[in-house]
Amino acid sequence: MASNRRWTVAVKHGVDVNLTRADPSTGTIDLAHAPRKTSDFDRNAVEEAVRLREKLGGTVRAVSVGPASSREALRDAMALGADEAVLLVPPAGAALDSRGAAMALAAFLGSPDGGFDLALFGEGSTDHFSGTVGPWVASMLGLPSVCHVRKLAVDGTLLTAFRDLEDGVEEIETALPAIVTVGQEINTPRLPTFMSTLKASKKEVREVSIESLLPPPGGPALGPNTLESVRIPAIPRKRLRVPGSDPAGVAAALIEVLRGEGVGPA
Amino acid sequence: MTERVLCVSSRAPPSPALSWVGRNLAGEGGQVALLVADLEAPPPLSGPVDRTYRVTDPAFDRGRGDHWAAAITEAARAFKPTIVVTGPSKVEQEALARAAAGLSAPVITKGRRVRAAADGVHAERDLLSGNAVGTETASGRPVFVSLAEEPTVTGEAGRPSSATETVSLAVSLPTYRFRRVSMQPKPAQEVDLEAADRIVSVGRGLQRKEDLPLVEALATALGAAVGCTRPIAAESGWLSDDHWVGLTGHRVRPSLYVAVGISGAAQHLVGMRDSKLVVAINKDANAPIFDQADYQVVGDLYTIVPELTRQLTAAKGSR
Ligand SMILES: Cc1cc2nc3c(=O)[nH]c(=O)nc-3n(C[C@H](O)[C@H](O)[C@H](O)COP(=O)(O)OP(=O)(O)OC[C@H]3O[C@@H](n4cnc5c(N)ncnc54)[C@H](O)[C@@H]3O)c2cc1C
After folding, report:
1. B73 in a domain, yes or no?
2. Three-state DSSP class for A36?
3. What residues of chain A, 55 to 114, have a C-beta less than 8 Å from chain B?
4. With the C-alpha atoms ordered A201, A202, A206, A207, is the resulting torsion angle positive or negative?
5. By the CB < 8 Å criterion, does A143 face chain B?
6. Rounded mean pLDDT, A210-214
7. CB-CB: which of A132, A166, A242 is closest to B107?
8. Is a pLDDT exceeding 60 seen at residue B159?
């Protein structure tokens, strides 16, 4: 059945926190030159959008904000099943923070070209985790935001979503178009196959310049937030292997150690 | 520089410590306003607040981020803050982002040690999923800030509060359809991990919920509270969220932390790295947790943990 439903997912090409190392001479991390990958929860958002398409038809569009290297995140999204990809490109040399990304996304999603039924975001990015982009975009577009969603369903223009709050899980009903943010609990993203990766590498990534979307001066008038003295806090650990050839021996040795450290049996 | 700080507390009653964060940011001669939704009784006129904005609209829902955002927007119009500060709750953070969007204002979320200076507002925060820390700076004013943790420190008691005035605030609430159908409450808080002196924490190395007593028995033998990784609480739901340690869970600083069947992902480590002594039990000799441990036990938790419990209990009995 033909369907014109539009599922839009925002994906960030963020710093790969597992591959990032500090400069040993300064102890600090140079984020501008750190290795990058798709932010973890954004992949859950893509998976959820693809599942919606599988159930209800329509098109999954991935949108990213960033320099040309952010195409990687869009390719990844297409390998996971997104049909098309749009890259919102900042002016050359411009630094982007969460606010700049949110403003660009809001401008695109609010343009005639950017319409959607449901837009899905990660609830925070693996590198910065500001958690602001989804609700910011919703606010700019005058739409409801349902954050920290663990399960959702769409029926016509009705969205039912279960959101995880500190003291409980709330079931929310709201009208589309709407914005949700999701965490890793909502699903397990499928593994891209060789074929899906190959196909994704051949699909077009459409570029839209942020300057064409936002009125002059083409972005936040205030400078982007900056990050200084980014470092890995060093906690010295002893890293001693507890000896013993069988469980009883290891347990006895560990109890000895704990006693010596002043944290023996209760 | 003096600041005009708008403090937003969605809690009922509002957090007094949050007002003190505001007072410290405002500086000598600065102004502090508190935004509350107190539909029944007026808030107590105490603490360091110069003015209280009170939402009284019966349609206001304190569980909704968009309602709070509407209230912040209105209070900001009246008070003209240079800094808006909220607590760490999910609803407060959503409200902060939605309200900041309306003013295109810079935001710093989950800040610690927030400082206001001429060149901007600075806050320390976790970065890279807790692998790193750094200082984030937002330039210009106003700046919107949420705190990483619920503040607890209140200032000197007895500061005159006579200057406090209360202003009723009319807000225009969103009109789109949005309904809370149901609320499945989480179990009441079982442990206070932040206060625990010893913690035995369990990860996905545990295969079944039925095996939890193994870990609980070890905790009892050590006089420890039980903690866990995110999957155990959030995915499997074997333990409630108050046991969850890490970036998106609790941040603990016990004198002893025993990690059982935990791989040592960065997002978990950030929650436990302030522990004084760390013991890790894992069957994989290359598990990253071992790099962050003082004592490493390589082995199967299903044999080590019961044996450890047995010997600890016996040692106790023979004292
Ligand atoms: C943005 C973000 C936020 C997150 N926040 C948090 C957070 O706050 N807290 C958190 O914990 N995680 C968090 N995570 C998840 C985190 O990345 C890891 O997925 C999680 O910590 C892994 O949990 P685990 O160690 O229990 O499981 P696994 O990584 O699966 O590790 C299980 C370990 O058990 C060992 N094992 C298996 N069987 C045995 C046995 N019989 N005996 C001994 N050892 C055994 C294995 O060798 C392995 O090392 C977050 C992730 C993201 C992306």
Report:
1. yes
2. strand
3. 97-99, 102-103, 106
4. positive
5. yes
6. 90
7. A132
8. no
Is the same domain home to B22 and B149?
A: yes
Q: Which chain A residues are Cβ-neighbours of B247 within 8 angstroms?
A: 129
> A6-222 is classed in which CATH architecture?
3-Layer(aba) Sandwich (3.40)
Are B299 and A250 inside 8 Å of each other by CB? yes
Measured in whole angstroms, the distance separating CA B285 from the mean position of its chain's CA atoms is 33
In this prediction, residue B166 has a pLDDT band, given cuts at 50, 70 and 90, of confident
Question: What is the overall mean pLDDT for chain B?
Answer: 92
Pair type for strands B83-86 and B4-8: parallel
CA A73–ligand 1 middle distance (angstroms) = 25
For the segment B211-251, what is each residue's pLDDT rounded down to a tens digit? Answer: 999 999 999 999 999 999 999 998 888 998 899 999 889 99
Binary contact (A226, B313; C-beta < 8 A): no
Q: Residue B160 has what pLDDT?
A: 45
Same domain, B163 and B293: no
Domain total of chain B? 2
Cβ–ligand 1 distance for B231 under 6 Å, the answer yes
Q: Count of residues for chain B? A: 319
The domains of chain A are located at 6-222, 237-266
CA atoms B208, B209, B213, B219: torsion sign: positive
Q: What is the pLDDT of residues A150-201, one digit of tens each?
A: 999 999 999 999 999 988 899 999 999 999 999 999 999 999 999 999 999 9
Q: Which helix (H) or strand (E) holds B260?
A: strand B256-260
